[in-house]
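[Automated response] Your request has been received and processed.

Submitted sequence:
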Amino acid sequence: MKVSLQYALSDPQVAPGQPNQRQLITTLRVETEPEDTYRPLNLAVILDRSASVAPSVFATLKQALLTLATQLTPQDRLTLVTFNHCAELRLRSPVETAPTAPTAPTDHWLSLGEALRGLKPAGGTCLNEALRLGIGELVKHQHDRISHVMLITDGSNDHGSDRRCLKLAEFLAEKRISLQVVGLGLETGATDLLQQLVEVGQGTLKRVNQTGQLQALLKDQLTQLQSLRCLDTVLYWIPEAGVQLAQHQPWAQVAPEVCDLDPEITPERVTLRLGTLVTYSPRTLLTNLYLTAPQPGPCPVAKMQVHYRHPLETTLRRSAPVLITATATPNHTATLAPAVRPHVLNLTKYRQVALAEARLEAGDAAGAAHMLYAAAVTAQELGNVQVEQVLGHQADRLRNGSNLSGQERQVLRILAQSVV
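Generated structure:
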């Protein structure tokens, strides 16, 4: 597999001798090659069954895991560790002579169902012992498989050692074993520990406040694992003379979802760490910049290249370098390219809702309503009547003196991040 880079400027022509504000769209795609084949998974699920996990949540978790098991292929390997104040290896897939050895298609579902039968939440929590047991089983079967730890917990560790947890996370990062943490209804202290785990282990943390989100979240995670993907992806962007980034939040992601980015910026280059890229979901970035061309003619903007790693390799691969160029044309009047306009509007909507949230936190309901009205207008420009109505309705409620519940504010965040 390889990563390709494509770019588009909001207007590829600029007026010479003066600063020109432009938006740069960069799209990163993972492209398959003839030699690419499916690599079986070596998956360890580490499941919290302590008393702090509500019985209804645990029942939903078991059903979500059974659904996940139906997605596994016969060549995948599944390990299940459950834990409270003690850790227990509940499921170990049969040891095979080779990853391609045939097994019955329903083995994972039946075995996992048997392993989960009768389990109920009880006891305290010793997270480090569960991690040790799960990782120990995982490293025995790494050959020609993509290894992954899926930790599902509320983050409590009252019978364990946080220091040992972080040491095990370091080991995962050293061995290039990916880590996904699913946090259940997290309290502040629990969030701190899990956030440290994913930072040290170079993993990701997904918070789940509603049990209905669990099945979709686990399905999406497994879909990503089973796709051809690139790890440890880093975009290097080197500006040419006469190019300056906007001072405030110059980089953002605009697809598959919208969010601001925080790259490492020096005068010589920008370093943007993007993590995992997958074949089914290109990543699109937007950069706000100012370009001054000294004279008419071709005008270089920046050079860019991506470094990334195949899941089964330790050495880095590099994409083909790309030179971004514009053309300086005397007396040019700027126009916004139709292909770039939706990306600019989606980012505008995202930031308007973010400002509304900040105003709400500051107790300024009128200011929050004003920003939500602005976001509704942006949604209207994007042609999405439903999003426009939701944003406008919430703005009306704030203006009339009502408060927004935590769930309603969560909906606003989802609408802000969604690509319309």
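Summary generated for your ticket: The chain has a mean pLDDT of 91. The first strand starts at residue 2 and ends at 9.
If you did not submit this request, please reply to this message.
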